[in-house]
Design goal:
With 335 residues, the protein is α/β, with parallel strands linked by helices. It has helices at 22-37, 75-92, 105-108, 152-159, 175-181, 194-207, 218-227, 249-266, 284-297, and strands at 45-50, 59-64, 67-72, 96-101, 114-120, 126-130, 133-137, 165-169, 186-191, 212-215, 232-237, 267-277, 302-309, 327-333. Helix 8 (249-266) links the parallel strand 11 (232-237) and strand 12 (267-277). The termini are far apart. The mean pLDDT is 97. The structure holds S-adenosyl-L-homocysteine. S-adenosyl-L-homocysteine (SAH) binds at residues 143, 148, 151, 170-173, 175-176, 190-193, 196, 217-219, 238-240.
């Protein structure tokens, strides 16, 4: 697929001698959908097509119950949209398919930013479940395509460590808070977006989980809680990508270090820190260095209990390092 605008001029659909026609695209969609069906996912919201990793470069399709959200992030993907819609309708039979073509990357391709229904109908809110938690999702306006699906398995993994006082930083719609909240004595969730916090409160009420959801800047709030002498047993740090470009790495590094340092100080000995970075430009090794240096400054010993990445429905294509972007470490602060 050729783009006359992007820095990525060519995206390969195949290296074999074959015609890249609708039948090939359909086979790719079928393989992608079949793979997810075989994963035994505990939830009704997950990624169906993960671009390069499904040999459908720059195509994203996420399933939210009976609705599919599609993103075409290159000129070629944009042109393939009708073929993708036909294939998804045949194979998944959704109630509706929504194009969430509002990411800014579309501008780099000379494409317009738009959100519109491609087939069927798409309600303002879709209800989905994940590991027994119910969410109302706004697929029209929510961040990404509605939820942070790439963290689903990390939320489930984190639940195994949840106890005592839980603090969920950068909570968005409350994913970690609601998943961990059931095992906690008290749960606090912080996000800077008022809309997101309103959604946490609604989701908490709907699931009967007590969450103290606060609008706030995590950088300020962590410092404030440290001053007040607060302590937690389980802390989650899931910030937005601080390094969206290579030039932002230095500033991002100090941001990651700051929040990890504060969190380690707020953590009781024996407590668990689940810390994430979704910046592709910060490698796993670099992230481990940042967290180590935070632990040195906090004067604590920390062990790595688990190293995790984005969920299995967002697999990494070997040879395309950009497809490995999400790092998630489960750390234990030693007594
Ligand atoms: N943990 C969430 C996803 C987090 S996405 C989940 O599992 O679904 C990152 C979130 O951080 C966004 O909701 C964004 O609004 C919020 N955010 C960005 N900067 C922030 C800041 N300085 N303080 C608090 N929240 C912030």
């Amino acid at each position: 697929m050729y783009s006359d605008r992007s820095q990525i001029a060519i995206r390969m659909l195949t290296r074999d001698e074959e015609v890249a026609d609708a039948a090939l695209i359909r086979r790719r969609v079928e393989a992608a959908v079949g793979f997810r069906a075989a994963l035994g996912i505990d939830g009704s919201a997950y990624r169906l097509i993960h671009g390069e990793a499904d040999l459908l470069p720059s195509v994203v399709a996420d399933r939210y119950g009976d609705v599919i959200v599609l993103q075409a992030l290159s000129q070629g993907a944009d042109r393939l949209t009708p073929v993708l819609v036909d294939a998804l309708n045949d194979l998944v039979k959704p109630r509706g398919i929504l194009a969430r073509n509002d990411p800014r990357t579309r501008l780099l391709e000379g494409l317009t930013q738009e959100v519109n229904v491609l087939s069927g109908d798409v309600p303002p809110l879709v209800t989905v479940t994940e590991a027994g938690v119910e969410y109302d999702v706004d697929v029209w306006h929510g961040q990404k395509t509605g939820l942070f699906l790439d963290q689903r398995e990390n939320r489930e993994a984190a639940r195994r460590y949840a106890r005592g006082r839980v603090l969920d930083c950068f909570s968005y719609n409350g994913g970690f808070a609601l998943t961990l909240g059931r095992a906690a004595e008290e749960t606090i969730a912080i996000d800077i977006s008022e809309e997101a916090v309103a959604r946490i409160r609604a989701n908490a009420a709907r699931n009967g989980v007590a969450v103290d959801a606060r609008v706030g800047n995590v950088f300020d709030d962590l410092r404030g809680m440290e001053r007040l002498g607060e302590r937690f047993d389980t802390i989650v740090l899931d910030p937005p990508a601080f390094a969206k470009t290579k030039s932002a790495v230095e500033k991002a590094t100090s941001g990651y270090k700051e929040i990890n340092l504060r969190a380690l100080k707020l953590l009781n000995p024996g407590g668990t820190l689940i810390t994430c970075s979704c910046s592709y430009h910060i490698s796993e090794a670099a992230f481990a260095d940042i967290v180590y240096s935070a632990s040195v400054d906090a004067r604590v010993h920390v062990t790595v209990v688990e190293k995790r990445m984005q969920g299995r429905d967002h697999p990494v294509l070997l040879g395309v390092p950009e497809t490995y972007y999400l790092k998630c470490f489960v750390l234990r602060k030693l007594a």
